[in-house]
Amino acid sequence: TAVYLGALNTLNIDSNGWDKLWKGLGLILLIYGGLLMIGGASGSHSVWQPLNIISTSNAGNTKTSSGLIFTKVNNLAELEQQLAQTSQPVMLDLYADWCVECKRMEITTFQDPNTIQALKNTLTLQLDMSANTQQHKDIFFVFVTLFVIYAFSNFPTFREILIKSMLLWTRKRM
To answer: Distance between CA 40 and CA 37 in Å, rounded?
Structure first.
């Protein structure tokens, strides 16, 4: 795009304003593209702050994560064990490396001081679903069904139908 906009072309002395505008925009895009390439080669995943990983890696060990700290669980058995051992409210984060929203929430929501304050007395668990195994799909189905039941809790008949359907499905699957 930068080359198409004339970033590398020379301007004549009598060039009009549009030529200068397109060349300027092309130069900006050329520089931004270069920064994206440097950031990507350095391991950055952010298009808005491509060099952020370089500045944070230069800070050494002085930078500590001030975000939520999750207890990792790998399967349903570990999840049930964690739930049995606590009397606190629990927040379960279903995480995957390929999930764009999961990456965004790592940077924004889970670093937000209001979120950290609101969840300070909560057991925060994180289930890594990156492998997308059948067990992960089953867990996801159960939690989505529970969410729908909760969302429609004002409709008792619908809730009962969903609960019975989920129990039948879980008995067949697990």
So the answer is: 5
